[in-house]
Amino acid sequence: MKEVAAFVLFLALLVLVSDAKVTKPNTGNFLRCLSNGTGPVHPITDVLLTPANSTFVSSYVSYTKNKRLSNPKDTNLIAIIAAKHGSHVQATVVCAKFDGIQIRIRSGGHDYEGLSYISSVPFVILDMHNLRSIVVDVSSKTAWVEAELPWEKICFGRFVAVAVPAFGVILSWKINLVEVPKTLTVFKVNKTLEQGATDVLYKWQLVASKLPKELFLRAMPQITKGAKSGEKTLRLSSTLSS
């Protein structure tokens, strides 16, 4: 009987939890906190979007990697802060913590699971796409690169590891610059499964780790259209540079 009673109690608690509604934070307090947390030189109102703004939906959709997971009508999304200054990031983190609002940080990474733009609880998106400047110091062969600078604009570099004991947002990286050789050799070969992509990938696994450090050999599989209409196949892109 004790086991039955415990099981019934567990089911009752489960029903209560599943029926419980998420407590909505005070959006007005959060927005006022943002305004008070930034000065007149870099007002956060210039980069703040709420559902009342006409560009809210387009801003949300523009930087989502997986359109199947995006939900522009998500009522849990309170605001999008497209930060342009460090004070915008600081105010967002502080105010969200104070009002119990979850933060999703959206940057230029490969977020195909939607973790940076969807949530089951009230949240804000801290969008980093405006932070893409670079300051180069030729004499020291270093550069400060903001978080969202596209990788293709950085030829060579090594990121410096940063240890963060608590929650934080990285605004920029300091990288070491490497001189580019006068002559570069690059070629790219595409093979589908029907053209022997499996054999190429197998050989790549055998030799890639044994090549000199001056050679870079990458094999990247991708889904592409097949020979017949409606069919799909795998295409392997092999790139070598030296």
Structural class: alpha+beta
- SSE succession: HHEHEHEEEEEEHEE
C-alpha end-to-end distance:
74 Å
Number of DSSP strand runs: 10
Overall geometry comes to flat
CATH superfamily of the largest domain: Uridine Diphospho-n-acetylenolpyruvylglucosamine Reductase, domain 2
Q: What's the average pLDDT?
A: 79
Question: How many domains would you count in the coordinates?
Answer: 3
CATH class of the largest domain: Alpha Beta
**Corresponding CATH architecture of the largest domain:** 2-Layer Sandwich
Provide the spatial order of strands within the biggest beta sheet: 1-2-4-3
Proportion of residues in β-strands: 15-25%
> Could you describe the largest sheet, including whether it forms a barrel?
4 strands, mixed
Q: State the CATH topology of the largest domain.
A: Uridine Diphospho-n-acetylenolpyruvylglucosamine Reductase, domain 2
* Fraction of residues in H or I helices: 10-25%
The tally of helices reads 5
Q: Radius of gyration from the CA trace?
A: 24 Å
Low-confidence stretches: 1-20, 158-165
